[in-house]
Automatic annotation (TrEMBL):
Lineage: Bacteria, Bacillati, Bacillota, Erysipelotrichia, Erysipelotrichales
Species per Swiss-Prot/TrEMBL record: Anaerorhabdus furcosa
Highest taxon, organism lineage: Bacteria
InterPro entries: DUF212
Alphabetized PANTHER family for the sequence: ACID PHOSPHATASE/VANADIUM-DEPENDENT HALOPEROXIDASE-RELATED PROTEIN, ACID PHOSPHATASE_VANADIUM-DEPENDENT HALOPEROXIDASE-RELATED PROTEIN
This protein's name: Divergent PAP2 family protein
Ranges annotated as spanning the membrane: 12-31, 68-88, 133-153
Keyword Transmembrane helix attached: yes
Keywords: Membrane, Transmembrane, Transmembrane helix
Length: 158
């Protein structure tokens, strides 16, 4: 069977994977906490990783459309590996550093009995920036499923 997918299939697969990954995050939070947290739709971090869902979908879609031996597949795979590593390591540890820094500020204020009043110490910073490996693996799986379903159903985008 000849696939009639548009040349934009990799882009749409990537975008749909990112959006659907964000949309299912509140469901996984509910399963874990028994509380709905609709803010998770717009949050970074959490299960599944939308970053890795997007790049996994992109790489699979490029491979299916352009052949897995193509240069563009190699480029998309390299991009996916960099984004995946970043999501699970660099961004995760940046978030951990924020948590440590905030705790140090609280400890210094308690130990010295001083209130640090410089606005920099009062800045609200998001602590969860990256992902645990299980969240990244969930994102990879999600992206592969999304790109595969679109491809095998032959969904065509205008």
């Amino acid at each position: 069977m000849i696939k009639t997918l548009s040349s934009m299939y990799p882009f749409w697969a990537c975008l749909i994977a990112i959006i659907t990954a964000q949309l299912v995050k509140p469901i996984f939070v509910y399963l874990k906490t028994k509380e709905w947290s609709w803010d998770e739709i717009f949050a970074s971090g959490g299960y599944p990783s939308s970053h890795t869902a997007g790049v996994a979908a992109l790489s699979l879609a490029v491979g299916l459309q352009e052949q897995f031996s193509s240069t563009i597949f190699a480029v998309s795979l390299a991009f996916a590996l960099i984004v995946t590593y970043d999501a699970a390591n660099v961004r995760y540890y940046a978030g951990r550093n924020i948590q440590i820094t905030q705790q140090l500020i609280r400890d210094i204020q308690v130990i010295t009995e001083m209130k640090l009043e410089d606005p920099i110490y009062l800045t609200k910073v998001k602590e969860v920036l990256g992902h645990k490996w299980i969240e990244v693996i969930g994102g990879i799986f999600h992206g592969i499923v999304v790109a595969g379903v679109i491809y095998f159903l032959g969904v065509s985008f205008i």
